[in-house]
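Most newcomers find our protein records easier to grasp once they have seen one. Sequence and backbone structure share a record, each on its own labelled line. To make this concrete, we reproduce a full record directly below:
***
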Amino acid sequence: MNASHIVLFGVGDAYMAGLAFQARLMRAGFMNVLTSPVYGEQRHLASTLSGYDCALVLSYSGSAEPTLKSARVLKENNVPMIAITSNTDGELASLADISLFLPDREKKYQRYANFFSQACMEYYLNVLYSWYFIHKYDDITKI
């Protein structure tokens, strides 16, 4: 709630879900939501953050190396980190301050589509957005 910046990390479909979350927060008046628009620059973005910021790290598998590299830098810099992943025993979950776990219904080699994981990721992000909106309602409605 009191972070200077909310910064989103992820690749592929997780990143796309993060962009939609960013757009919703910006429409609600929280303009300090950052992502890296250039692939491969997320680790650099992570290195610029501090304990006054909050990172939201999105990874269904919890094993995407670019995302893990960013999470390691965030941890080193004491940046509060929320992870959304299905990998309960993975490194990402252990690095995060708070982990929200997606159901592990898509097996790595049996994925016919990413619909399930995408819907679950969006659900968690919608819950976070709703929580933010409720707590900032008076401020948001003045905009």
In short: Strands lie at 6-9, 33-34, 54-58, 81-85, 98-101. The helical segments are 12-27, 42-47, 65-76, 91-95, 115-135, 137-141. The first strand starts at residue 6 and ends at 9.
